[in-house]
């Protein structure tokens, strides 16, 4: 029993990245396919307004909308904001203005970027036109940006069938966010000890249970756990499952066994993979010990110790 | 109908970076503080509701980790909203109104420091037309601010915006939890460069980490737990279209409607805690809420002094309630917002018993 040392906080990069695949309804499909063909479509509401970009349901009346119309690639800035330092993923790499643009023939405004030499060249009410991307795929980014335009307003929106060859039915929207993950005091202490091949649990000052891995709080009492207790290294399999699905980027042959393991001295089972024994011979009560990863920072898996199996009564409270 | 009150409020000290603590470690002292205030243990609370966001934490079901802090074993009655804790408070309020519970613990937390908040918030935008352009939260607020400045009938200019910033951060000097306190006079602020024109740094909220919690109680239970409960006389929340281009960004009809339904216009309030992360948004909210000049607005410093994501709206309700608890307000309005450019708005009216 040692008082917890003040830990040096661990941190590590964490990247969360998904290629979200999204299907389009008839209206969004027509709009994005239209952009691929340098045609801007809106949708007419039951009370006669033209929404660009178009939506399938009227934001005011909730009516279903499908009456497609074509509007001009020119329009008027309704508000703007000068962005001196473009960020990753934004439409232009050089300083630009964010703009809401009401295209000629539309009653609502579209958000995009405006390529302009500086903030003094931008104002509400200025005329702009679409600059199309060289390669268009059926996405909002088919509009590369807007650019200043001297011409007058074009006419009314005109009916459009919304039909194009090879319509776009979905988009892939990649999303990447970068984090610096910091696990906090309790988990930092745990991970550092683990790198020294020692497993620490933390004892609740109220109910006296030892939690591993510790998260800094007792889930029963809702109080901080701060007394470190060495547990393991050996433990008992309390329950397990046989995994038959090969995980991507994971170099483990299937089937393998994933188990709950009650380390000696702990009041909560942690989970880990069982190796060193055929998958169909793993059983409740099996005594196991950790096998450390090549870099020695954490247990890669647990293997049988060769001891006799533990009695059910010794671990039944930890199932 | 049953009367429900906020009987305790606590918040963390809001900091730009709290890497030394996990979410639950940051939250736990706040939970203990509010429970100690009313002399209850976690297990004695009838209903628990929280607000937080997986996108801030960078992992799925992140709120389940924080549940350790409330002692969720043996099982408790619990719920979670993936937005500001003000909406968790709304859920808890309705639960108490039904009579199924007499007490509720509401908490909210957010750590912005692990990620890039301006990028993280782009993921709440429409994924077809807006999110692929990665417009960051400051840029969207700047579009709203410019619309306000351009509108003929608002009187808003950059000097007025700077005035909001200076007043808020000066007020925060008496708030020990605030992240930013003190300000040069408005004229000096106008010498600073733009962050995203027309917004300068002082027009924007600090990015930081923090947590807050309140205890709600009904009727006689509230009177037993708190010498001067902050009774919730009305509460309502409304949303507007997601697309910025279909909205008049100079107005906030959802705030106006929520205030009407919450009863805010039935009698004057003497204090208002407004969740306006950007200076321009306070001007919009003041107009929609018809606040008289005499009303004290954000004596806590508001979101311009500390804006922990997912907690800042709940803190507005908590600050308004705390003013009633200490007899510094009689009838207070609290407002919370969520989403880009004031998309969703919640208004609550709080009152103390006549002294």
From TrEMBL, chain A:
Chain segments annotated as transmembrane: none
Domain ChsH2 C-terminal OB-fold: 69-132, 229-292
Superkingdom of origin: Bacteria
Ranges where the ChsH2 rubredoxin-like zinc ribbon domain occurs: 201-225
InterPro entries according to UniProt: ChsH2_C, ChsH2_Znr, NA-bd_OB-fold, Thioester_dehydratase-like
A Pfam entry, by short name: zf-ChsH2
Protein's name according to its UniProt entry: OB-fold domain-containing protein
Automatic annotation (TrEMBL), chain B:
Protein name, per record: Thiolase domain-containing protein
The organism of origin for this protein: Streptomyces luomodiensis
Annotated Polar residues bias: 171-182
Region annotation Disordered: where it falls in the sequence: 168-189
InterPro entries noted in UniProt: Thiolase-like (IPR016039)
Lineage: Bacteria, Bacillati, Actinomycetota, Actinomycetes, Kitasatosporales
């Amino acid at each position: 029993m040692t008082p917890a040392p003040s830990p040096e906080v661990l941190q590590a990069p964490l990247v969360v990245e998904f290629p979200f695949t999204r299907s389009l309804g008839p209206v969004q499909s027509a709009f994005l396919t239209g952009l691929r063909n340098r045609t801007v479509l809106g949708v007419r509401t039951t009370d006669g307004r033209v929404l660009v970009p178009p939506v399938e349901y009227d934001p005011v009346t909730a009516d279903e909308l499908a009456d497609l119309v074509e509007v001009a690639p020119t329009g008027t800035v309704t508000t703007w904001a000068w962005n001196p330092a473009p960020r990753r993923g934004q439409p232009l790499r050089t300083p630009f203005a964010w703009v809401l643009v009401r295209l000629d023939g539309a009653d609502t405004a579209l958000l995009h970027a405006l390529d302009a030499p500086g903030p003094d060249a931008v104002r509400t009410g200025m005329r702009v036109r679409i600059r199309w991307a060289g390669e268009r795929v059926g996405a909002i980014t088919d509009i590369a940006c807007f650019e200043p335009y001297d011409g007058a307003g074009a006419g009314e929106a005109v009916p459009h069938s919304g039909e194009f060859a090879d319509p776009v039915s979905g988009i892939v929207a990649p999303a990447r966010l970068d984090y610096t993950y910091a696990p906090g005091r309790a988990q930092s202490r745990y991970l550092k000890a683990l790198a020294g091949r020692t497993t620490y649990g933390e004892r609740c000052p109220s109910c006296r249970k030892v939690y591993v891995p510790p998260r800094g709080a007792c889930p029963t009492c809702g109080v901080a756990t701060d007394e470190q207790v060495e547990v393991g290294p050996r433990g008992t399999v309390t329950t397990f499952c046989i995994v038959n699905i090969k995980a991507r980027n994971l170099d483990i042959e299937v089937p393998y066994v994933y188990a709950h393991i009650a380390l000696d001295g702990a009041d909560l089972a942690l989970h880990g993979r069982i190796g060193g024994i055929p998958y169909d011979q793993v059983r409740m009560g099996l005594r196991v010990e950790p096998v450390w990863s090549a870099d020695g920072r954490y247990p890669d898996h647990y293997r049988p110790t060769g001891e006799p199996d533990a009695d059910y009564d010794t671990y039944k409270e930890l199932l | 109908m049953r009367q429900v009150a906020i009987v305790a409020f606590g918040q963390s000290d809001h900091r730009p970076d709290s890497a030394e603590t996990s979410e639950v470690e940051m939250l736990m002292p706040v939970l203990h503080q509010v429970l100690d205030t009313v002399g209850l243990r976690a297990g004695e609370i009838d209903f628990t509701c929280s607000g937080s966001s997986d996108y801030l934490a960078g992992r799925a079901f992140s709120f389940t980790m924080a549940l350790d802090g409330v002692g969720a074993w043996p099982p408790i009655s619990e719920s979670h909203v993936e937005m500001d804790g003000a909406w968790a408070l709304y859920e808890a309020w309705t639960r108490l109104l039904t009579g199924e519970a007499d007490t509720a613990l509401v908490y909210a937390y957010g750590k912005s420091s692990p990620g890039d908040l301006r990028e993280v918030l782009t993921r709440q935008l429409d994924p077809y037309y807006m999110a692929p352009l990665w417009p960051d939260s400051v840029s969207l607020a700047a579009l709203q601010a410019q619309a306000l400045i351009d509108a003929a009938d608002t009187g808003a200019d950059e000097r007025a915006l700077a005035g909001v910033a200076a007043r808020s951060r000066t007020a925060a000097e008496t708030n020990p939890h605030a992240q930013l306190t003190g300000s040069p006079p408005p004229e000096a602020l106008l010498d600073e460069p733009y962050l995203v024109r027309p917004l300068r740094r002082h027009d924007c909220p600090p990015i930081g980490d923090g947590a807050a919690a309140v205890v709600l109680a009904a009727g006689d239970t509230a009177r037993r737990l708190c010498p001067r409960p902050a009774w919730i006389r009305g509460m309502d929340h409304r949303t507007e279209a997601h697309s910025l281009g279909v909205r008049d960004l100079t107005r906030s009809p959802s705030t106006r409607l929520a205030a009407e339904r919450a009863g805010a216009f039935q009698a004057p309030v003497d204090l208002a805690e407004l969740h306006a992360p950007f200076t321009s948004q306070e001007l919009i909210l003041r107009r929609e809420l018809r606040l008289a000049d005499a009303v004290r607005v954000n004596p806590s410093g508001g979101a311009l002094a500390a804006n922990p994501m997912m907690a800042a709206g709940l803190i507005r309700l908590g600050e308004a309630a705390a003013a009633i608890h200490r007899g510094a307000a009689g009838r207070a309005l609290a407002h919370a917002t969520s989403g880009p450019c004031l998309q969703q708005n919640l208004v609550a009216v709080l009152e103390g018993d006549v002294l």
